[in-house]
Design brief:
CATH class of the largest domain: Alpha Beta
Helix content: 25-40%
CATH topology of the largest domain: Deoxyribonuclease I, Chain A
Shape: extended
Number of domains: 2
Strand order of the largest sheet: 5-6-7
Largest sheet: 3 strands, mixed
CATH superfamily of the largest domain: Endonuclease/exonuclease/phosphatase
Number of strands: 9
Distance between the termini: 28 Å
Strand content: 15-25%
Length: 243
């Protein structure tokens, strides 16, 4: 069963809604899962927290596709999302969530991974992203220079392995590693009083970057081992052997 599915957050934008309308017409999309729709008067274009559709294949196998929006200002996940998971314990359920979603695990305990199932973070996994860190790059909000962080990892890798292993076991990504320091860099000979004279750059903590790289490397390795890189050529750009 081949389906063209679009999942998109419109961010209440009329322009994005218009563009989506054109896309659906030109690409012959079968299913559109929409979050944060554009609201016109009392008419809402799409759903708010959960958009779901159930598809039945020719062989009778049912698949539920769902998109979940979890706003920062409200408890997550929404009750509709919990209900959707609980009502489909033995069905194939494909869930997608908004990029602002919280890290709380909503899957039933019967299908959650035990901490012991997660491979240990090896020293090689830690050193690979560490070696790519540029020592002279500006630090993030924590103010820790990259040179000092690299020396600390080199001297006591076990401490950092334990930290990242805890993150993987608990399925969490520390909020402080998501915070950014905004720096405005002047553009050449532009007038200093004009907004367009500056280039905004957001600096993140390097510890968060290392954790992201560990996760990314594991996902890439999993995709290659399972042959997932050949599923859709349009999705190969993030894989190491795509080019």
């Amino acid at each position: 069963m081949d389906l063209k599915v679009v999942k998109i957050n419109l961010q209440h934008s009329r322009c994005a809604t218009d563009n989506l309308t054109v896309l659906l017409a030109e690409e012959d999309v079968d299913i559109a899962l929409i979050q944060e729709p554009w609201v016109r008067s009392t008419e809402v274009k799409g759903s708010q927290d959960v958009t779901a559709v159930e598809v039945e294949a020719t062989d009778g196998v049912g698949i539920t596709l769902a998109s979940i929006y979890m706003a920062h200002e409200r408890p997550a996940p929404p009750e509709e999302a919990r209900k959707l998971v609980q009502e489909n314990p033995n069905k194939t359920l494909l869930l997608g969530c908004d990029a602002n979603a919280r890290s709380e695990n909503i899957l039933p305990s019967c299908i959650q991974h035990e901490a012991g199932d997660i491979p240990r973070v090896t020293e090689q996994e830690l050193q690979a992203p560490c070696n790519k860190i540029k020592s002279k790059k500006a630090p993030g909000p924590d103010g820790i220079p990259n040179r000092a962080l690299k020396l600390a990892i080199c001297k006591r890798p076990d401490i950092f392995q334990a930290v990242f292993q805890t993150c993987l076991n608990e399925g969490t990504f520390p909020k402080r590693w998501k915070k950014q320091t905004l720096v405005l860099l002047p553009k050449g000979n532009k007038k200093p009083g004009e907004p367009e004279s500056f280039r905004p750059v957001c600096l993140l903590d390097t510890m968060g970057k290392i954790l992201e790289r560990i996760i990314c490397d594991r996902l890439s390795s999993f995709a290659e081992d399972k042959g997932l890189s050949s599923v859709n050529p349009a999705q190969q750009w993030m894989l190491s052997n795509a080019w």
